[in-house]
Design brief:
With 232 residues, the protein is of the alpha/beta class. The protein has two domains: 155 residues, Response regulator (Rossmann fold, 3-Layer(aba) Sandwich); 71 residues, Arc Repressor Mutant, subunit A, CATH 1.10.10.10. The chain has twelve helices and five strands. A five-stranded parallel β-sheet has the order 2-1-3-4-5, with helices on both faces. Helix 4 packs parallel to helix 5, helix 9 crosses helix 11 and helix 10 packs across helix 11. It is elongated and about 65 Å long. It starts with a helix and ends in a 6-residue tail after the last helix.
Length: 232
């Protein structure tokens, strides 16, 4: 009889709530978001941090149970949220990181996605849909504010491989792009190739024009997608 009773208790015992850590430096907004999370069925905000470093320090402790989701701002004092994504994923690969920010520019969205973010939401517009967005993450989805989703589609359209454009780079322009991919500044690329900074800037402008991009990350992504690096 005791065993049957224990089995019945186990069957009726509610499933543990999914845990969320919130990293947001605006204390008022932090409290509001925590309350919103508290209204979501089966979910609870177990920790709030104002700096990314504080969350990482806690996550590094061997006794810490990692959260299911980290809701992360981008513009934080100290380490930015974008730089924190990779470290969080490294310390806890099962934790899903969702960006919640006011920034919707292409570079930040691109960096967040490349770093392993599971979603990208905008403050204000996303607050009413926060519950469904977090639930979507736990189901394996990648929620994005509609405006961000459109930006992502536009971004990938621009970065789609265009073999004719990528192969149209001159040998010197390919060397400059290779330097960009290695994370070198234009000044460092110029020194490595024995060029003047003015000449390197000229090559950079030419690369952007040929590849139809506006920044370094776009140029590198376009060339990588074309498979051109394999030929360098």
């Amino acid at each position: 009889m005791p065993r049957v009773f224990d089995s019945l208790v186990a069957m009726t015992k509610p499933a543990p709530k999914k845990t969320v850590w919130l990293i947001e430096d605006n204390s008022t907004l932090c409290r509001i978001i925590a309350r919103v999370i508290g209204t979501i069925n089966g979910m609870v905000c177990t920790a709030k941090y104002y700096r990314c470093e504080e969350a990482l320090e806690h996550l590094e402790k061997p006794t810490t149970v990692p959260p299911d989701i980290v809701l992360l701002d981008v513009g934080l004092p100290g380490m930015s949220g974008l730089d924190g994504i990779g470290r969080i994923r490294e310390l806890s690969p099962t934790t899903q990181v969702v960006i919640l920010t006011v920034f919707d520019d292409d570079e930040k969205i691109y960096r967040a996605i490349c770093a392993g973010a599971s979603g990208y939401l905008l403050k204000g517009a996303a607050m009413d849909d926060l519950a469904s967005s977090l639930e979507q993450v736990l189901r394996g989805g990648a929620p994005m504010t509609p405006r961000v989703a459109r930006r992502v589609l536009e971004m990938f359209t621009r970065l789609a491989p265009k073999e004719s454009a990528a192969t149209g780079l001159s040998p010197r322009e390919r060397q400059v792009v290779e330097g960009m991919a290695a994370g070198l500044t234009n000044k460092e690329i110029a020194a490595k190739l024995g060029l003047s900074a003015h000449t390197t800037d000229g090559y950079t402008r030419s690369i952007y024009e040929k590849l139809h991009v506006k920044n370094r990350s776009g140029a590198v992504a376009k060339v990588m997608n074309s498979g051109l690096f394999e030929k360098l």
